């Protein structure tokens, strides 16, 4: 399994971010060829009430690095990447790598 994890920084307007992500970006990303699983979490405050550094965490899973590369370099993957400036102005961190079950 090969994963792309996207950490979205806290947006200036969380409601606008969530609307665009849920209605536009997630459906767009879900069309990436080779995508086997796509999960999203919205972390909550810690025990002291502090807001987490990330508003949303998305994990996209592919069979292999090659499948990931092919999907992301195709038109669907490129469209998902091109959509980021439309809602993720606070920035993202993208991590990729092999995933194993512990």
Question: Would you give an account of this structure?
Answer:
- There is one protein chain.
- The chain has a four-stranded antiparallel sheet.
- It has helices at residues 14-29, 65-73, 75-83; strands at 2-9, 35-41, 54-62, 92-98.
- With 102 residues, the protein is α+β, with helices and mostly antiparallel strands.
- The two termini are 13 Å apart.
Rg from alpha-carbon coordinates: 14 Å
Helix content range? 25-40%
- Tally of DSSP helical segments: 3
First and last CA, distance: 13 Å
Name its key features.
alpha+beta; 102 residues; single chain; 4-stranded antiparallel sheet
SSE order and pairing:
Blueprint: E1 2-9, H1 14-29, E2 35-41, E3 54-62, H2 65-73, H3 75-83, E4 92-98
Antiparallel strand pairs: 1-3, 1-4, 2-3
Overview in brief:
This protein is of the alpha+beta class. The protein has 3 helices and 4 strands, in the order βαββααβ.
